[in-house]
Write a structure and sequence with these properties.
By secondary structure, this protein is mainly alpha-helical. The chain is 73% helix and 7% strand. α5 crosses α7 and α7 runs antiparallel to α8.
């Protein structure tokens, strides 16, 4: 694979996938910490305050590694994607700079107050710091997703005589319908990740017979929020996102379902293997009319197949896009089932006595990370072969003077560095979980 473009894409894919393992937890945890701190202000809320202290420490560890792993991506816009930056910098560069201010200054400042300032600030001001941390964390998400939404569905822009993109309508750019739907969908998915992690820690403590009061609290908060967020990821946020893809990126929708022929009453496929060479889906198992309804709100709506589009405009890795989409949807469905069962058992008083379900809740926490990664892969692979959909091809955005060897060399370096960071992170988080919430209070 000597093509420099392939290495540029692989390096950016690796660094961004690794980086997003951390923000997806911090954004969800920021909301959970606010809820815990709010409940702690009421009488009898000391257990919630203890839980909040513990999760603030976990948030801090995630935040630090997230910042460290996010910095190389900013540099890659100049090193690997110089032509993209040259023509779109006036549109995307300003928002990315603002996001850096939120991430480095707003979040880090209030995180320091949360970790070390509880006694000096007092309960109400400490809650205000948690609220500010939440706002900063989610504003970072708003900014990044608004930038990505422009690449998915460019609106509010103009182009100068030199081809450079500029913002002509700031309102249209900021309130891009794609950005609004994508933000809601992404934030609910991050809350799923955080809820599963909170639930897993509670189940771990309960199975080990340690910190039982905190274990029950974590199970209560985690399963309740986990069920709510899992449902909201599917509907209405996921449903709205699917309709936007159908309207603005019909070739991506066809590839996500391995659909080559157009037709009405289109089925959604539960299983199958895309056969691009023969332009068909092998061994399909589907549900009739569901895709038509999900995409256009009518069971008899026509869904276009890939054969309707020039092959040069097809997503360039249909197989990976198809499987990413189905992994995301399949896991999301399982999340609703698992959290629904856990909430039912907790409501009936059976959860603490059902060790197999506690084991399932403890071991399930990696799967939201997989689902989130698959979801972002679906979005980014579906946009290909465009960097800015319909306007700038990926092949035209890469740096022309950075050769494959340099990119591969730095990619190997990233792999080694991120391995060390990952092991250190797991050790520190594992130590916090083993010590328990009382250590956080001390």
């Amino acid at each position: 694979m000597a093509d420099p473009l392939a290495w540029h894409r692989l390096q950016f894919a690796f660094t961004i996938v690794y980086h997003y393992l951390f923000p997806q937890l911090t954004m969800g945890l920021a909301l959970i910490i606010v809820l815990l701190k709010a409940r702690a202000l009421r009488p009898g809320g000391e257990a919630y305050a203890t839980a909040a202290r513990f999760w603030v420490r976990i948030f801090g560890l995630n935040f630090v590694v997230g910042v460290v792993t996010g910095i190389p991506m900013e540099f890659q816009f100049g090193t690997n994607w110089a032509r993209f930056s040259a023509v779109t910098g006036e549109v995307v560069g300003q928002l990315l700079a603002i996001e850096g201010l939120f991430a480095f200054f707003l979040e880090s400042s209030f995180l320091a107050m949360l970790v070390w300032g509880e006694k000096k600030l007092g309960p109400k001001k400490h809650f205000a710091a948690a609220l500010a941390l939440f706002v900063g964390s989610w504003m970072s998400g708003v900014i990044i997703i608004t930038t990505n939404a422009f690449m998915q569905n460019p609106v509010g822009y103009g182009r100068g005589p030199d081809g450079v993109f500029v913002i002509q309508d700031l309102g249209a750019y900021l309130f891009n319908p794609w950005a609004l739907a994508q933000f809601a969908h992404n934030q609910m998915a991050s809350l799923v990740t955080a809820s599963f992690v909170v639930t897993a820690v509670g189940a771990f403590w309960f199975l080990g017979g340690a910190h039982l009061e905190q274990a029950r609290l974590n199970l209560k908060v985690g399963t309740g929020l986990g069920l709510l967020a899992s449902v909201l990821v599917a509907f209405p946020t996921g449903d709205l996102q699917a309709k936007l893809v159908a309207h603005h990126q019909p070739a991506a929708l066809a590839a996500m379902e391995g659909r080559f022929e157009s037709g009405t009453r289109a089925e959604i496929h539960l299983l199958g293997q895309p056969n691009v060479k023969e332009r068909k889906l092998d061994n399909p198992i589907g549900v009739p009319m569901v895709l038509s309804f999900l995409a256009f709100g009518r069971f008899n709506a026509e869904v276009k197949g890939l054969n309707e589009f020039p092959e040069a405009d097809w997503p360039d890795n249909i197989e990976l896009l198809y499987y990413s989409f189905h992994v995301m949807v399949g896991l999301g469905t399982l999340f609703i089932g698992l959290m629904g069962l856990a909430v039912l058992f907790r409501w009936r008083g059976w959860l603490e006595k059902t060790r197999p379900l506690l084991w399932a809740l403890m071991l399930a926490f990696p799967f939201p990370y997989i689902a989130n990664t698959a979801g972002w892969m679906t979005a980014e692979l579906g946009r290909q072969p465009w960097l800015v959909y319909g306007l700038l091809r990926t092949a035209d955005g890469a740096s022309p003077t950075v050769h494959a060897g340099s990119t591969l060399f730095t990619l190997i370096g990233f792999c080694g560095l991120y391995l060390v960071l990952g092991l250190a992170f797991l050790f520190l988080v594992g130590r916090e979980v083993t010590h328990g919430p009382e250590a956080a209070h001390a």
